[in-house]
């Protein structure tokens, strides 16, 4: 049976303006910090957790849990999706669907 996709509550936004972005979400919006490291700050929004990551900017990335990341990735690529970024050490497998939606595949 094919993988089922289930969303998590996590959204990642990567930016080179990390100090300004974390100040904005923490001070201007008043979101509480739920996670902090040198590269990543998580903010609790109520419905989802927004993670702001240091690095080359990209738009928001949502996350789907799957049983088998490799099988899900192969299925999605065969259906017209493209791999945007992949790093097994994170783990990270960002996929863009044919309609522009970018999401990470994460093993359950």
From TrEMBL:
Cite the Glyoxalase-like domain residue spans from the record. 11-105
Pfam families found in the cross-reference section: Glyoxalase_6
In the UniProt record, the signal sequence range is: none
What is the name listed in the Swiss-Prot or TrEMBL entry for this protein?
VOC family protein
**Species assigned in the record:** Dyella halodurans
